[in-house]
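WARN no homologs supplied; continuing
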Amino acid sequence: MLVLENQLPMLVLDKLLDISGKKEDEESINNLILDFCCSETRDKYSPKWGQCLHVLDIFRKCRLGKDPGSGSGTGTGSGSGSDRKYCCTKPRKDNAKLITRSATELFEAGVRFENKESDSLNGISFKKGVLKLPSFVIDDTTESTFLNMIAFERCHVGAGNEVTSFIWFMDNLIDTAADVRLLQSKKIVHNFIGSDKGAANLFNTISKELTIDQKSGLGSVHSQVKEYCEQKWHRWRANLCHTYFTNPWTLISVIAAGVLFGLTISQTAFSALQYYQSPSPTPSPIPGQHH
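OK structure emitted
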């Protein structure tokens, strides 16, 4: 149903629904498709998109959480015509500047990950050291679904590039099985293919030769993350927290050692102060000495 080359124009589906006598309004066909493809998201809102292109177009808009009037060029990837052209070209040499560190590397640099509590692929944000990401499922249909949405964005002028940008960004974050485990612990990734390494390979495969414009929404997020990680203080603080404050017993030991060190310093200072403030002893007279 979501394979790009198998899509029927929405005009055909809408006409068939009209012939069946079940068409209530202009949104009838859209609502039927949403009920079938996006039942969970369908319960949260009832968009009025008007005439869409086909089933894949509706499914993509549903995954992006697009509101009526938002247009094709809003959201995570900025989706403008220039962005689309950039994504369809071969990677340029200056694209290396856009490489984001993996999730584990960012975590070691002090970046915290939080679930955006939304299944919309739009709206990745970074603020005050917190990178907020949407939650999503990785299963047997993930690769095919994302590849078809990417193909649609590349082939249809004006569709935008939000899904392409999302996959590019997640591929940078997910490099190894350790990255998948970290994002799973934050309830961002829900892996149902059984292998963390397999999930990492999936993103590494479908994102080949995908690029993003530095002026897009995710380009801005990348710049903010890069600037944050370049500050050594954040890495030092993260290293301190990860080393000493992840286990309560380790924390207690650090506090106890600090208290003991403080008491030792205090005792040494008190002893020195007492020594210098004590009165000097009066010298004993020398025998046989007379005034």
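Residues 79-230 form one domain.
OK
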